[in-house]
Amino acid sequence: MGMTTPPRTLAEALRARDDESLAALLRARPDLLTPVPGDITQLATRAGTRASVVRALEHLDRFALQTAEALAVAPDPAPYEALLGLLTGDGRDDGEHRGDADTAIGDALPAALTTLREQALVWGEDDRLRLVRTARELLAPSPQHPSPTGLGPTVAEATAGMSPGRLQDILATAGLPATHDPVSAVTSLSALFTDRARMGELLDTAPAEALSVLDRLVWGPPYGEITPNPTPPVKWLRDRGLLLPVSTRTVVLPREAALHLRAGRAHRVPEPRPPAVEAVANRDPQAVDSAAAGQAFLAVSTVEELLKSWNGGGPAILRSGGLSVRELKKTATTLDVSEPVAAFWVELAYAAGLLASDGEADERYAPTPAYDDWAELPAQDRWVHLATAWLAATRTPGLVGGQDAKGRALSALGPDLDRSAAPEVRHRVLALLAALQPGTAPDPETVLARLRWERPLRGASASAGDTTDLRSRIALWTLNESELLGITGRGALAAHTRALLDSGPAEAAALLAPLIPEPLNHVLLQADLTAVAPGPLERPLADMLSALADIESKGGATVYRFTPGSVRRALDGGQSAADLHAFLAAHSRTPVPQPLSYLIDDVARRHGHLRIGAASSYVRCDDEAVLNEILADRRSATLRLRRLAPTALAAQVDPASLLEGLREMGYAPAAESAEGDVLITRAGARRTPPRTAPVPVPEGPPVPDATLLGAAVRAIRAGDTAATVVRKDPADAPPASSGSLPRTNSAETLATVQAAAMTGSALWIGYVNADGAASQRVIAPVRVEGGFVTAYDHTADEVRTYPLHRITGVAELADDATP
Known about the structure:
Blueprint: H1 10-15, H2 19-28, H3 40-47, H4 50-58, H5 62-73, H6 80-88, H7 100-118, E1 122-123, E2 130-131, H8 133-139, H9 155-158, H10 164-173, H11 182-194, H12 196-204, H13 208-217, E3 223-225, H14 232-239, E4 244-245, E5 250-252, H15 255-261, E6 279-282, H16 285-309, H17 325-335, H18 339-351, E7 355-357, E8 365-367, H19 369-375, H20 379-392, H21 422-434, E9 440-442, H22 444-454, H23 470-485, E10 488-489, E11 492-493, H24 495-502, H25 505-512, E12 524-526, E13 530-533, H26 539-548, E14 550-553, E15 558-561, H27 564-572, H28 577-587, H29 594-606, E16 611-613, E17 617-620, H30 624-632, E18 642-645, E19 648-651, H31 655-664, E20 670-671, H32 706-724, E21 727-728, H33 746-759, E22 763-768, E23 774-785, E24 788-793, E25 798-803, E26 807-813
Parallel strand pairs: 16-20
Antiparallel strand pairs: 1-2, 3-5, 4-5, 6-9, 7-8, 10-11, 12-13, 13-15, 14-15, 16-17, 17-19, 18-19, 21-26, 22-23, 22-26, 23-24, 24-25
Helix pairs in contact: 2-32, 5-7, 5-8, 10-11, 13-14, 16-18, 16-20, 17-18, 20-25, 21-23, 22-23, 24-25, 27-29
């Protein structure tokens, strides 16, 4: 009286949970919600499928997984004490694994069991713990799939196909009483291996070489190969059942014997506590923030420089997608970085939605319209945009240069760089850094050890062709990319990154803004035709200077060099010599050097002296001697020039090629229009059509929000009520089987529904929707008219209208079963 009956199945255990516990299960295993189970039985069935159990096991930490592995080799069901004994041992150690370790295991085991119960991997009370059957099959030992614990099959499993005569020989050799019952023989042999005293006596008589064989098998793998004529030590073990035959050439150490040799422990080293993340250096937090802010500004500048270099149309896209190796090298040279770092910046711009394909027939990469909006933002807001995109991106630049599962090279911006685990690993690495004191730089190896403890089964990604620990590789890339992006400074997490993770973009931008240097409106002109920018420049000044000069070096100060080609580039953009002189005088803190003035005047004097047009193309010049010089130059042979008049030459190449060819010969021609006017060739701002940033590839179904969880739990509860409710079957109808739909003819259905509407009673109905899906429902009819019944549906927890012709049948509920 008053005692709760222990659950006999996983479904019964789930049915006994409260709504909050069911919601926790669905939150931890969101794959169970697709689609929403019709009742508790369907939920339990889905929770026991192989794919779902594998996914759940992959999300366990190491100790929870070790607990599940111990249950897989424990008796089914197993009491709590037996499980604890498999983790701590039976006390026969020499003291190495006792004391604090056993205390830690005892302290951590209840939490591990709570996790396994919450995820429906373990059910039952503490005196009858059961691991779900699919998890047991995945974790239990077999010749094809050795147990993670390194234990082999039990004596009963290993001797399942053994002849009674062979069993008798083993009993006799081991000194056990003979029995003709195979079950008794197996029981007797198992009892020997689990009896501490008798097993010790047996091993005391073993040859030293036989004990060496056992030492090699005891911690796994428990299988070994033997010859048709085994050595005496192996024969001694085989004759006494310490090695049992699996095939003609394979033997196995039975689980009971291995546990005795292991002092009762399922794992060599249980790990109840996560490894600590250790520090390699403690730095001044202000120095960390300053270093990170400087790198953040450099990151913004680098992305801007990359997109400027592709402003008139970037590199062509490979037929298979992505950048070619040559284009990546060219980009690395432009940015003055290594190729892996260049791949990171390219992928970051793409993930942030600033870069995309233009979609033309000759498909190329180009900045998106979003780039123009981004470029107008303050530097701190531009950085927040990049950092936020990086945190959420599943694109993994570290894979560039590797190979996919089919041996094909992985290219930057290519189609196979998404790894769904990347965002979760990045957030977890930064969370570990955030847990340290400000200014603390962690030891990367301890970070990797912590990640492996938290997700021991999720290292490799076989589907992506990766054979190493993918999560560890992503973690290392995260640490390197964090330093490049200004997430960290000198290895420690910056204050603005902590704000980004905790408070959001606005707070991060506010903390970063004071640390970013103010843009300058001046440069320092040098007599050697260079200009030094002692810091970041204002955008108009930087744009003009980049057109007038070439960047020679970067760093704390940027050095620009003026050349004839760079000055001509500015003149091509519509500037006059007077404009350039005025610009330099207005923005230089030093006098404009005379050599620079002479350079500008000299290039301007020759600029446009030659005119290029389309005949196919032509050259005209008032100075006949210049045209004679061009015709006499062997380098002009490829242009296929001929004289049309004393001041005009015709060419067989297009104007652009003619223009470039003459420039390579050292001239400074200018293009002209059909009307004879000089064409101004400003750098084209080529843009793609509006593009959205690439959507991260999700890792399994998304975690449902509280509203969806509440609705799903209500639907499952209501469906379970409909499936398990007690109903009255018609007297002449056979008893309905569990889960079957009620069957009544249309007249009986209509009469029963009308009667229920008048009395306000509830009915159990079978219903087939427009898609042909059948379901059971409990309804309380309110109105019946026009071939439809309007009722409160207890299953959906709302009022609905059902066509009568889709109701397969009805049945009244028992008097004590009304919802």
